[in-house]
Design goal:
heterodimer, A: mainly alpha, ABC transporter involved in vitamin B12 uptake, BtuC, 12 helices, 71% helix, B: 253 residues, alpha/beta, Rossmann fold, 2 domains, 4-stranded antiparallel beta sheet, 36% helix, binds adenosine-5'-diphosphate, binds magnesium ion
């Protein structure tokens, strides 16, 4: 029996909401950031399924974050739904511009080109004093369709927002990954020549995955900016992009929950090593990734518990 | 049936100093089954590559049902109705046999496959399985490409080409790399499927018994040129062909 994605989504969402009320404030905040950043990594995973790894998702993360920061500063718009919508338009729009260009490249060229785009944004923002330069801008506290919570209530509202968004996007992406288009993506990853000779454009499929990743990057950025209350050019810096790639590789491309688990693991490791072993957390992360690659080369998503049957693989037609 | 399905006019293709095609002109009637012979490097694959848009000729023209397709790419040509198989099967290695067919069907349905229709829904699985059964490789449906015997890989490659419901198909060495005793069963299966659909067929082959048995006409390639274009027995008894292609004179059968 296939589990219905909607049922899985409802159960997961309920669980996360209950969990949110049980968690201490710091952990709730950590979860909000981890899930928001997990969305960015999920975008990278969508690309990995077509065989490309974007090393520049900081670009879209940053665009989403600055959309939130600048809208509240210039127009006073603080509504989380409107800001999210706008960041989807901005990030998705930029993705539509660069997607067709990048989709002509593969491997290290794709990774480096995507990285260079994010570094251009980083450089431009750092030099633009009207946008705060390297200091960035503060982001006003968000409102929720007129509801304007403060302090702990605000953190909880944002947590509820991100878990809802995460579960919805996760469910949609599961459906997309399991769809005909999702299977064709895996075919592009395996053999582009065959895909072309069947009559579809491998570059087109890569471009679409890039636009999806851009949108997810924008959503992740807007929520992170609202949670932290501040954005700066570091959002587009290569180390930020590197962490998203780290999470995507840690998770592998088989499981969607694994992406968010990997993102949570990263945030937990970061918090604890900052607390107990300052300046060693890169070391900890490096060792961790090494172990995962040695033990689970397909990522922690290949652990049985999370591994949904990849499309038709093991399924026998019943009839 | 005198309609010409595929016509090439004076195709020329050079790779540096190597002439891979020189004045290649043919006209294949709809529904015909022709074979291409020639020693390694004679230009057979180059011909297939040019007709299917992977390579463009330096000069000359390719017409499909009277329409000029000389400058089109593989995608457009496939969708127009010319499909091919490969000398080295081009399969999706990370996918299972049936998933390869699901991919082919999905793309055949639309160049931009659905984002919401499940890849493995019952109807699609049934269709894919039926194709595998037709080629007698259904038992391998859940195997990855690396685990498939050579003959099965060849058949799957051809089966995937056929999902495009081609009007013209070009098979590049359908039986190469396959054990001798498997060659005839493979050709039987493939030719039966193709003739059922009335597909115009060109196949590249080194085994003269297969050429004689399955093709109505033979094109002999040498050094990028067609040195003979006639019925199998005529071509195989041609002294030039014997000298440059088959090597030894065939004793008349
Ligand atoms: N892409 C290419 N680049 C350079 N030379 C090529 C290329 N493709 C084929 N050739 C050359 O063209 C000639 C014909 O090759 P090919 O068509 O593959 O022969 P066949 O399929 O008859 O064995 C050979 O000399 C081969 O080396
Ligand atoms: Mg060849």
């Amino acid at each position: 029996m296939e589990k219905s994605p909607v049922l899985v989504a409802a159960v997961t969402l309920t669980g996360l909401i209950v969990l949110g009320f049980a968690l201490p404030d710091w952990a709730q905040f950590l979860m909000t950031i981890a899930l928001a950043k997990g969305l960015v990594s999920l975008g990278i995973v969508a690309g990995m399924r077509c065989g490309v790894v974007s090393f520049g998702q900081g670009l879209y993360f940053c665009l989403g974050a600055y959309t939130a920061g600048l809208m509240s500063r210039w127009t006073g718009v603080t509504d989380v739904f409107l800001l999210t919508f706008l960041s989807v338009i901005v990030a998705g729009g930029v993705g539509v511009i660069f997607g067709p260009l990048l989709s002509r490249y593969r491997g290290i060229f794709f990774a480096m080109l995507s990285l260079s785009l994010s570094m251009i944004l980083f450089g431009a923002l750092a030099k633009t004093t009207s946008l705060g330069g390297t200091d960035g801008v503060n982001v006003a506290a968000p409102t929720f369709a007129g509801y304007a919570p403060e302090g702990g209530a605000l953190a909880t509202a944002l947590y509820l927002f991100i878990v809802t968004v995460t579960v919805i996007i996760g469910t949609v992406m599961r459906i997309v990954f399991d769809s005909q288009s999702g299977l064709v993506s895996l075919a592009v990853r395996s053999n582009e020549l065959r895909v072309e000779y069947l009559g579809s454009s491998a570059n087109g499929i890569v471009a679409v995955s890039y636009v999806i990743a851009a949108i997810l990057g924008g959503v992740g950025g807007v929520v992170t900016a609202l949670a932290i209350g501040h954005v700066d050019p570091e959002y587009a810096f290569w180390t930020t992009s590197g962490e998203f790639v780290f999470v995507a590789i840690l998770a592998g491309y088989l499981s969607i929950p694994a992406v968010f688990v990997a993102s949570i693991v990263l945030e937990v490791v970061r918090s604890f090593s900052n607390l107990y072993f300052p300046n060693t957390w890169q070391l900890v992360l490096g060792v961790f990734l090494l172990v995962v690659i040695l033990v689970r080369p397909d990522g922690i998503g290949s652990i049985k518990l999370w591994r949904r049957r990849e499309s038709a693989g093991a399924a026998e037609p019943s009839a | 049936m005198n309609d010409i399905a595929l016509e090439t006019k004076n195709l020329v293709k050079n790779f540096g100093a190597v002439t891979a095609a020189k004045d290649v002109s043919i006209a294949v009637p709809a529904g015909a089954v022709w074979s291409l012979i020639g020693s390694n490097g004679a230009g057979k694959t180059t011909f297939v590559n040019m007709v299917t848009g992977y390579l463009h000729p330096d000069s000359g023209q390719i017409l499909f049902q009277g329409r000029d397709i000389t400058r089109l790419g593989p995608r457009t040509i496939t969708r127009a109705g010319i499909c091919r198989s490969f000398q080295i099967p081009q399969l999706c290695g990370e996918l299972t046999t049936i998933e390869n067919v699901l991919v082919a069907h999905a793309i055949n349905r639309s160049a931009t496959p659905s984002f919401f229709r499940r890849a493995n829904e019952t109807e699609e699985m049934g269709r894919a399985l039926a194709l595998l059964e037709r080629f007698k490789i259904a038992e391998y449906r859940n195997r990855l490409m690396g685990e498939l015997p050579a003959g099965v890989r060849k058949l799957l490659d051809i089966a995937m080409a056929m999902t495009g419901e081609p009007k013209v198909i070009l098979l590049d060495e359908p039986t190469s790399g396959v054990a001798t005793e498997e060659k005839f069963p493979i050709m039987d299966l493939v030719m039966e499927a193709l003739s059922a659909e009335g597909v115009t067929t060109l196949f590249v082959e080194h085994d003269m018994e297969i050429v004689t048995r399955y093709s109505e006409r033979v094109l002999a390639f040498y050094d990028g040129r067609i040195i003979a274009n006639d019925a199998p027995n005529e071509v195989l008894s041609d002294p030039q062909v014997q000298r440059y292609v088959t090597g030894t004179p065939l004793t008349a059968s």
